[in-house]
Structures are given as structure tokens and as C-alpha cells.
């Protein structure tokens, strides 16, 4: 059983983990959507946050750039609670898609966002053909 599957069996652990991830993303998102990073988003019409957790980062981008269509691609067990968050209602350019990045095709996007500590070779091979990869690492 994977770490993620094991965690899915412990709702309180899930809440703590994804809450912590979201808190970190709030900080990083403040920089990413500030004027200093505007250039990164030039020409980007669609963005996929791969393993985007509860959507904090994608939502910040969707709010700052209403013309960018943002998708959070996450494990199916994380999506239902995430997409129902009240803060995301009224963000027409934000959607969630459940899937496993190692088993399924990552949806197409002009830009992919992936927050990891180190790259898994499988992930790199999937990203090779893409135009942009925005990386944020804690
Ligand atoms: C380090 S957390 C980062 C979460 C989010 N990007 C953030 O910054 O808050 C890694 C994320 O990848 C997701 N994840 C792990 N394995 C995955 C897979 N095979 N396919 C899709 N998402 C996956 C986890 O559910 C988790 O939300």
C-alpha cells in the first residue's frame, strides 16, 4: 500500500497533511502571483497543477489570472473534498480532475506546475514534451 493510500484511511491525518501543504502553498503562491513572476505566465492559456493537493496554489493562480484555465490533477481520494471548498466557488477557471500521474496521462496544459522535493524519473519522462514546467519546491 502506498503512503497516499494509507493516509486516505486516516481522515484526521489527511486533514493535517493537506492542511500543512495548503499553508505552505499559500506562502509560495503569494510570490508566484506577484509582479515579479508575471513573465512566467505570459502566453499561458492553461495550467495543470500536478499533485495539486487541495488546490490552494491553482486557485491563487486562477484568481490572479482569470484567462488561465487551471486544473488540479490529484489522486481521486483527494478531489471530492477539495473541489467543494467554499473559497473556490465562483472560480470558473478552476477545476479538479482525479487521476494517478504514474498510471494515466497527465492532462494537457501550456504550463504544468509540480511541487516536489525531487523528481521521479517517470515524471520527468512525462514532462519532456511540454512547453513549460513551473517548479516550486519546499
Ligand atoms: C508534497 S504534496 C504537494 C501538494 C500540493 N502541490 C501543495 O503544494 O500543497 C504531493 C501531492 O501529490 C499528490 N500525489 C501523490 N501521488 C500522486 C499521483 N500518483 N498522482 C497524482 N497526485 C499524486 C498527493 O496527494 C499530494 O497532494
From TrEMBL:
GO terms for molecular function: O-methyltransferase activity. PROSITE patterns: SAM_OMT_II. Keywords: Methyltransferase, S-adenosyl-L-methionine, Transferase. The keyword Methyltransferase applies. It comes from the Eukaryota. GO terms for biological process: methylation. PANTHER family: O-METHYLTRANSFERASE. This is O-methyltransferase C-terminal domain-containing protein. It comes from Linum tenue.
